[in-house]
Amino acid sequence: MTHFNTQLLDYVSCSPTPFHAVANAVPWLLDAGYQRLNESDDWVLSPGGKYFVTRRDSSLIAFKHGAKPMLETGIRILGAHTDSPCLKVKSQPDVARQSYHQVGVEVYGGVLLAPWFDRDLSIAGQVSVLNQDKAVEQHLIDLKRPVATIPSLAIHLDRNANNDRSINAQEQMLPILWQAGGKGETFRTWLLSHLASQGVVVSEVLDFDLSFYDAQAGASLGVANEFLACARLDNLLSCFVTLQSLLASAEDVTNLVVLNDHEEVGSRSTAGAAGNFLTGVLDRLLPDTQERHRVETQSMMMSVDNAHGVHPNFVNKHDGNHGPKLNDGPVLKFDANQSYASQSVMASRVRVLARNAEVPLQDYVTRADMRCGSTIGPITATLTGIETLDIGVPTFAMHSIRELAGAKDPEMLFRLLTAFLNDY
């Protein structure tokens, strides 16, 4: 385990929700001299200044206002997303069956459901409460210990479980939170008790945005520790690396990192890439419309999101010429139907950049008889007109409750992204 990977796994393990992913990034920026901005205030931005702003507490933009004129340099942008597929608690979640108190959940994003069974689950997210002064306020919570589980059905009661299994998310994915025993406690009263135990005294829980997550922390594994296993590597690995690249970049060119929420469900929200968060910041950074359009034509973006490594047990799920391997370097992602934003001109420049930085590159194109996923890349490119490339580290088990990456790839990606911000 290198120091870089230790920091990476600590960040991901301590960020079970997008709210935590943003909150845990803020101290890095403050320590590096970044000034916090508020979207409702007037902004006075100066060359040489460093700034960041959040939206909905789950999306973040940080940027360095470079000393060189943006008309000469353009803006170098890195983008990633803070959300991951998971099980979210429903607004009226209480379900009492057979003396067990269960919690109704919604499936958020493209969750691989089977691995969620028999895991030690915890709960985290944001809670809106009415305080003692009858004012609404928000609190982050993270129980950090196992409090729930979704037990599998014994194979004796489902002899076909290993042959032809389907999972009904409404009926079969409800976590057991406690054994009721006639107590009559509800999820909201339990939340009140938890907040009180943390020294937060409130009169009422109004609403919440809470998720279940695997309480097992990230770890290195493999005989030579060549792998990293953790929840939410898609896409908090990219969030960590993009922020570290920004912090390590030079001061002369304007560089920006955007971390959007809601990518896993289509990005259609105020905090998502299809909203106006990034375009609003660019408007304030470049208030003259003509100047902004001129700068955008010289700007470049890397959309950083994990790629599918070729699985040794499922080799036929990949095109034979496009099977990225873990620990063989970052992956350029292409799709003729524009689910990825990469184009040949920018890709060729990045290949030269990677060669100069001594970072190996791999390519990913899905099989012609399959469809790939997508990223914030095409959406951001459409809204801004900025040339965009999709790139990421190869992983296994994407959208599972625990994913796997190569131990060498994050630092190689960091070197490439830092070179992009400094030298592109």
Automatic annotation (TrEMBL):
Cofactor or coenzyme needed: Zn(2+)
GO cellular component labels: cytoplasm
CDD domains on file: M18_DAP
Gene Ontology biological-process entries: proteolysis
Highest taxon in the source lineage: Bacteria
Residue stretches spanning the membrane: none
E.C. number(s) listed in UniProt: 3.4.11.-
Keywords carried by this UniProt record: Aminopeptidase, Hydrolase, Metal-binding, Metalloprotease, Protease, Zinc
Single annotated GO MF: aminopeptidase activity
Pfam family, one: Peptidase_M18
Family membership: Belongs to the peptidase M18 family.
NCBIfam families referenced in this protein's UniProt entry, alphabetically: PRK02813.1
Protein name per UniProt: M18 family aminopeptidase
UniProt organism field: Marinagarivorans cellulosilyticus
Lineage: Bacteria, Pseudomonadati, Pseudomonadota, Gammaproteobacteria, Cellvibrionales
